[in-house]
Amino acid sequence: MTVTNCTRASRFILVGLPSALGMERVMYASVFLLYLLCLMGNGLIIIMVSLDRNLQKPMYFFLSNLSLIDIGHTTAFIPKLLVNYISASNSICFYCCVIQLCFYFLFGVTEFFIITLISLDRYLAICHPLRYTTIMTSGVCLNLAITAWFVGFSSILCQVIMIANLPYCASNIIDHFFCDVGPVLQIAGGDIDVIEALGFLVTMLVVMSSLLFTLISYLLIIFTILRMPSTTSQQRAFSTCASHLIVVCIFYGSVFFVYLRPTVKNSSFGVIKSVSVVNAIVAPVLNPFIYTIRNNEVKEAVCKALTCAHTHFAHGHTIRACI
């Protein structure tokens, strides 16, 4: 039903994080700590890849893109969430809500493509090692990353514009801790069927195509690893793939649960909010640790940077010069 002659709500009220009674402070303190860990872990990867020549390879280039996405993904809503808690106000202006929704989904959709590019890079490195350096040149990697960001932006632009132009008259209370598309559409007036159908179509195309490509890449990688004569090479390759597959399972699993549903009008977001915590807060924190915890190149780069930092303070050298 189309709503006419109504005054659109200028501010929305966010219900907030799911938490047990009396545990609100613990919950928000945990979110603040996780956000700091996200900034430090992902920021460290970006700095290391930028400074250390040994890490200026396709895998780490895509990994630094993933780290940038994770920082943007969490920054899109966590600072506002924490400010609202400190000020004891859960309100957000209409246009701030639209901008938050836009950036959250820009980073979210682009992450699918970057994870797919990481799986492509690993497939070429392990299955076609002799052709790897000629295929994955710096120019190719840059073009692939730009394409991922562009397609991610294009995928969400139309839906965000349509959501921004809906009337919001019946209610201004969003049953979530940020402006997620489902809870926002739940309080929207007008006809949302087209927006829901478009969102479901984009989600299916982006999620399913990237998941299928990623799984095929890792299946081919596993078959190649099993044919390796060296046990040490097998263990090293399996270790790398296992960490990547953990990221895939966490990310895709939570996205399937939260976003692949036919309608939002009669949906309950109680459980969905809890799963969103994993997708929106926990996963961006875990990504840098999962991808690098067994990576000797990153460990060596961090140790070298720490040594250079000590030298910098002791002798006035620059860290870039040391690295």
Question: What do you see in this structure?
Answer:
Helix 4 runs antiparallel to helix 6 and helix 4 runs antiparallel to helix 9. Helices cover 74% and strands 3% of the residues. The model has no long low-confidence stretch (mean pLDDT 83). By secondary structure, the protein is mainly α.
Give a brief outline of the structure.
Belongs to the G-protein coupled receptor 1 family. The chain is mostly helical.
Number of helices: 12
Arithmetic mean of pLDDT:
83
The helix/strand series, from N terminus to C terminus, equals EHHHEHHHEHHHHHH
Strand order of the largest sheet: 2-1-3
Structural class: mainly alpha
Question: What does the largest sheet look like?
Answer: 3 strands, mixed
Our estimate of the beta-strand percent is under 5%
| Percent of residues in helices | over 70%
The unreliable regions are none
Inertia-based shape: globular
Roughly how many Å apart are the termini?
63 Å
What is the radius of gyration computed over CA atoms, rounded to a whole number of angstroms? 22 Å
Number of strands: 3
Question: Any chance you could write out the topology, listing elements then pairs?
Answer:
Layout: E1 11-14, H1 24-51, H2 58-75, H3 78-86, E2 91-93, H4 94-127, H5 129-135, H6 138-164, E3 173-174, H7 181-186, H8 193-226, H9 231-259, H10 270-292, H11 296-315, H12 319-322
Parallel strand pairs: 1-3
Antiparallel strand pairs: 1-2
Keywords:
three-stranded mixed sheet, 323 residues, mainly alpha
